[in-house]
Amino acid sequence: MSDTIVRWEPLRDLVTLREAMGRMFDEGMIRPGDMGSLTVDMYQTVDDVIVKASVPGVKPEDIDVSISGDVLTIKGEFKQDQKVEKDQYFYQERRFGQFCRQMPLPTRVKADKAEAEFEHGVLTLKLPKVEAVKPKSVKIKVK
Q1: pLDDT digit string, tens, across residues 81-101
Q2: Total structural domains in the chain?
């Protein structure tokens, strides 16, 4: 029979708070960034800057869009539609709470001419560019 002596290190088995929180998020609770975040696509055409924001489950009247200088702000609130009191939840992943997203615009736009549409949980903004920033083409005359 072999007797082996193992050095006891009491701190070896302790898990840091950071590791514990990381493990908790990896195991399926909520992930950082899921609450209060908004996914956005932004691109430009010759005449406009187009912004598409996914806001499923939000009513158009619960969304506020503003432009200040060269910053676009989209804010609103995800609302929980019903509360289940009798049943036990296995998962509850629907979002609720306020969101706010601010993005710099790639060019100057005419805020007073902006158009907004809402369809199937997607907010689409059409922001006309200021005339001075639209590309101009010059015709070359041949003599």
Answers
A1: 666 666 676 666 666 778 889
A2: 1
Query: CB burial class (10 A; 0-12, 13-18, 19+) of residue 75?
Result: middle
**Does a structural domain hold residue 42?**
yes
CATH of the domain at 117: 2.60.40.790
Which of 60, 49, 53 is closest to 107 using CA atoms?
49
Using an 8 Å Cβ cutoff, are 121 and 57 in contact? yes
Q: Which residues contact 80 (CB under 8 A, 6 or more apart)?
A: 94, 96
69, part of any domain: yes
Rounded CA-CA distance 24/1 in Å is 42
Residues of the chain with pLDDT under 50: 29-35
